[in-house]
Amino acid sequence: MQGAGEEERRASIPPRVVAWFAQNARDLPWRRPGFSAWGVLVSEIMLQQTPVARVIPRLEQWLDRWPTPDALAADSPAEAVRAWQSLGYPRRALALHAAAMAISERHAGVVPDDMDALLALPGIGDYTARAVAAFAYGRPVPVVDVNTRRVLARAVHGQGEAGPARTRADLAAMQELLPSDPTEAQAFNAGAMELGQTVCVARSPRCEACPIAELCAWRAAGYPAYTGPAAPRQARYEGSDRQVRGLIMRALRHSDGPVPAEAIELLWPDAVQRERALAGLLRDGLAVGAPETGYRLPD
DNA sequence: AAGGCGTGGGT
DNA sequence: TACCCAAGCCT
C-alpha cells in the first residue's frame, strides 16, 4: 500500500495546474476582466459540443447585439436561430432564447448564481450550471467537462481514456482535488479544462509540455492501452436525419418569408426521410408552418 | 439510459 | 479517404 505517496502525488496536482494556468491561459473572451455572467452563460451554451475557435466570432456578434438577457428576450426566437448561423445544434439557440425569457421574467434579468435556479433553465444541464456558478460567480463547485475527465483519467487513475461519463464519480474525483480557496478552485477548474484541451489532448498528447507529467499515473505506468468500457460513438452524419434537418434549417435561416413545401422537397430526394426530418423540426419548435403555408422559423 | 441532435477542422 | 473529435442536453 502506497497510500501516503499516492496522496502526496495527487495533492501536488492542483497547485501545479494552477501555476501552469496562470502562465499559459489563452486570452479568450470569457476570461476578460468584467466579462458578464450573461456572457459566460452564452459562451457555455455555444461551447456545448462546439470547439472554441468556432465559438469566438459568433459569441462576440451575439453579445454586441444582445448584451443582456432582457435584450435577447425582447427579440424573437427566429432571430436567435438566425444569429446562431451554422454553429450546429440549433436547438441550443432556441433554448438560449427561452432561458433569456425565463431570466427576464423570473430573475429580474439577472443570471442566477445558484445551481437549482440555473438547472431549471432550458438548455442548462449539470455541466453548464456548474460552469456558470464557478466561472461567472466564483463558486468553488467542481466543474467537469470532457477535457477534465481525460486529465483525471490519465493523471489520477492511470487510464488512457476517460470512457463513458460517470457524472457522480467524475464530480467526486474532481471534488477530491479541488482547492478550498475559491480563487484557487476557479483556477483549477479552468486550468484542468485548458490542460486537457491544449496539452493532454485525446490523440497525440503533448506530454513534454505538461506541467504534471512527472505526477501522471498513466505516464508512470508506461502509457498502457485503454481497455475499459468504450465511450459511445456518434452516429454517421452523412445521409442521416441530422444532415437533412441541417439542410432544412439552413433554408429556413436564409429565407425572409416562408419556405414553400416544394422548395423543401428539393433539399432531399428521399421523401420518407425528408418528412421525418421536417416533422422532427416542427416537434422541436425549430420550425413552424404547414404544407399549404410553407415553413419558417418560430416567431 | 442509450441514442438523437449540426457542423467543420484535424489526421 | 474515412473517421475522430469537440466547455452536453434531453428524452
Automatic annotation (TrEMBL):
EC number annotated for this UniProt entry: 3.2.2.31
CC cofactor: [4Fe-4S] cluster
Claim: Hydrolase is one of the keywords in the record: yes
Pfam families to which the protein is assigned, alphabetical: EndIII_4Fe-2S, HHH, HhH-GPD
Coiled coil segments of this chain: none
A GO BP entry: mismatch repair
Top class in the EC scheme: hydrolase
Superkingdom as given in the UniProt entry: Bacteria
Domain HhH-GPD residues, every copy: 46-198
Signal peptide: none
Keywords: 4Fe-4S, DNA damage, DNA repair, Glycosidase, Hydrolase, Iron, Iron-sulfur, Metal-binding
Stored InterPro entries: DNA_glycosylase, Endonuclease-III-like_CS2, Endonuclease3_FeS-loop_motif, Endouclease-III_FeS-bd_BS, HhH-GPD_domain, HhH_base_excis_C, HhH_motif, MIG/MutY
Molecular function in Gene Ontology: 4 iron, 4 sulfur cluster binding; 8-oxo-7,8-dihydroguanine DNA N-glycosylase activity; adenine/guanine mispair binding; metal ion binding; oxidized purine DNA binding; purine-specific mismatch base pair DNA N-glycosylase activity
Reaction(s) the record says it catalyses: Hydrolyzes free adenine bases from 7,8-dihydro-8-oxoguanine:adenine mismatched double-stranded DNA, leaving an apurinic site
Similarity field: Belongs to the Nth/MutY family.
Name of the protein in question: Adenine DNA glycosylase
Protein's organism: Microcella frigidaquae
